[in-house]
């Protein structure tokens, strides 16, 4: 029989895989691994900064701290989406990332305005600067993990989260600047830097929204974001 000479690819429930791992499973595993690793990095960074904030009361550090905690939390729905292998859930997780960024901007703005109205003395400036440097390092590592995986997996949500973390690293450097200006007697600069951080976070919100909303614009977005 002519058709009998064809190899049997469909019997016994094997389909066409012949023992190979389904690409969606591989993608799921890589996505979960990247999200979990970046979550661990940002979680440790945020905890370290929290300890410093409790002893310094710097609003610039608080703005960065809140954002880093927000970064860590965005990994939860994103990891769940990869685990479920659901494109719809992954897209929704991307929107959650954008919402989390916006909320952190609102918190930073409120705290900065409150500190302008009710100034406080900031101590332990050297420790504060170290905390900002830690924030930069932690965010840069997390950004590298997310961006590399996001590009490899063609995931707009993971790319947006990676760009978010990368710019956050630069925001953390603003905490170092805050410690420097306070050290020379310009205490008012701390809440002003907090407001500047708020504006940067709002810009990140818009860039992340564009990335998540338009799947076909990822390459342009990720190339523009450092």
User: How far is it from the N-terminal to the C-terminal residue, by CA?
Assistant: 61 Å
The main β sheet shows up as: none
CA-based gyration radius = 22 Å
Shape: elongated
Query: What is the percentage of strand-forming residues?
Result: under 5%
Taking pLDDT < 50 over at least 5 consecutive residues as the criterion, the unreliable ranges are 6-19, 215-226
Structure, briefly:
The protein has seven helices and no strands. With 226 residues, the chain is mostly helical.
Key traits:
elongated, mainly alpha, disordered C terminus, 226 residues, single chain, 80% helix, 7 helices
Tell me about this structure.
The termini are far apart. The radius of gyration is 22 Å and the shape is elongated. α2 packs antiparallel against α3 and α4 (125-153) runs antiparallel to α5. It has one domain (22-224). The model is unreliable at 6-19 and 215-226 (pLDDT under 50). Helix content is 80%, strand content 0%. It is an all-alpha fold and 226 residues long. The protein contains 7 helices and no strands.
Question: Mind sketching the topology for me?
Answer:
Layout lengths: L22 H34 L2 H26 L2 H31 L7 H29 L2 H28 L5 H25 L4 H7 L2
Helix pairs in contact: 1-2, 1-4, 2-3, 2-4, 2-5, 2-6, 3-5, 3-6, 4-5, 5-6
